[in-house]
Amino acid sequence: xxxxxxxxxxxxxxxxxxxxxxxxxxxxxxxxxxxxxxxxxxxxxxxxxxxxxxxxxxxxxxxxxxxxxxxxxxxxxxxxxxxxxxxxxxxxxxxxxxxxxxxxxxxxxxxxxxxxxxxxxxxxxxxxxxxxxxxxxxxxxxxxxxxxxxxxxxxxxxxxxxxxxxxxxxxxxxxxxxxxxxxxxxxxxxxxxxxxxxxxxxxxxxxxxxxxxxxxxxxxxx
Amino acid sequence: xxxxxxxxxxxxxxxxxxxxxxxxxxxxxxxxxxxxxxxxxxxxxxxxxxxxxxxxxxxxxxxxxxxxxxxxxxxxxxxxxxxxxxxxxxxxxxxxxxxxxxxxxxxxxxxxxxxxxxxxxxxxxxxxxxxxxxxxxxxxxxxxxxxxxxxxxxxxxxxxxxxxxxxxxxxxxxxxxxxxxxxxxxxxxxxxxxxxxxxxxxxxxxxxxxxxxxxxxxxxxxxxxxxxxxxxxxx
Lengths: 222, 235
Fold this sequence. Notes:
CATH superfamily of chain A: Collagenase (Catalytic Domain)
Oligomer: heterodimer
CATH architecture of chain A: 3-Layer(aba) Sandwich
Strand content of chain B: 25-35%
Mean pLDDT of chain A: 82
Strand order of the largest sheet of chain A: 2-1-3-6-4-5
CATH architecture of chain B: Beta Barrel
C-alpha cells in the first residue's frame, strides 16, 4: 500500500511537472507580437530617428505629431524621435482622399537582387509582412532607410485631438517597425480604429523590446 | 549536321542569350524592375454588419469590369514645423547616436497611389445612390505605376496594395459597402478591405480583410444571407 501510494504520488508529480513544462513551453506560442518585418539599424542605447514634420499648414496635425513623438520618447523603450527641419528618417505630410483611411505609412529599405552573378540594389519600399518575428523580412533587405507618413485630412479633420494623437502615435509605431495588434483583447496603440487610449501601452513596449533588444521594458505579449 | 556541329550551335546559342541578357542587366536597356509595396494604414474598425451598414451610404453586389490608370494623390504643400529640442536629464537623455537615413524613392514620397475601377451594379442591396444595371466608379488606394528608371532606359514598375485591401481584380464579383465622394461622384469602400466581400462562384463570401471582425462573422456564408442582414438594419 505504501509502495502504491509512493508510486501514485510520483505519478502525480510527474504529471504535474509535465503539465508545468507544457505551460512553460506553450507560453511563447500563445504570446502575440506583431512586426512589419525588418527594423532600423540599432547598435544599443537609444534609437534616435529624425522626423520632418511637414504638416505645419494644419496646426492640429502638427501638434499631434510632435506630441506623438514625445509619447514614444517617454516610454521604457529606446525610441527617440526628434524633430528636424531638413532631410529626415521619417517625413510626415497631409493629403486628401475619399478613401476611408485616416493615415498611411510607407517604409523603405535597400533590396539586393541577384540573377546568377548579376546583382543590383534598389531602394524599395518593404512589402508588408505582418510577421511574428522581428527578422521576418529576409536576408536580401537592408535595415530601413526611410519612412513616410501621410494623414488623410478628408477623414481625419473630423476627429478630435485625442484621436488625432492616437493616429499619429499609431503611425509612428509603424514607422519604427511595429505591425498591427489584431487580437481584440490586446491593449495596444497598434490596434486599428477608435481606442480609449492614445499612448503606447505595455504590450507595445514588449514588441519594441523584441525589435530593438536591450531589456528596456517589462511589458507583455498579447 | 553532325553531333559536334549541333553541340557547338547549342553552346553558341546559350552564350549569345547569356551575353545579351548580361548586357541588358548591366546597361538596363529593356529591363523592368518591379517592386511590390504595401501601405500600412489606420482607420475605423467595424464590429459587425449593422455597424458597417450604418457607416455606408450604399451597399451593392457588383462586378468589376475595368481598371483605370493609377495616379498619385499628391501630398499637401509641405510647411515644415520644427519642435523645440527635448530636454531630458535622465539616463535615457544621455544615450545614443543618430541613425542616418537615405531618401526614399522619388514619386511615392510625394503622394499616395490610387486607382479608379468601373463596376457594374448587379444588385442594389441598400441606398438610393446606386441602381441595378448602373456603372459606377470606385476609387481605391493602391495600383500600378510604371516610370522610367534613373538611368532613363530601364523601367521601374511599382505595384502598391493597401494593407488588408488588395487592389480589385477585373472580372471579380464583390459585395461592397460604399460611400460616395460628393465632389467627384466616385465611390470608396467603407473601411477599405472591411467593406469588401468577394462573391465566390458557389455564392459564398470571402472577406477581403481576413483580420477584421467582419471576416470572422461572414466568411463562408451565402451572399443572400449578407444581403438579408444588410436590409434588416434600421437607421
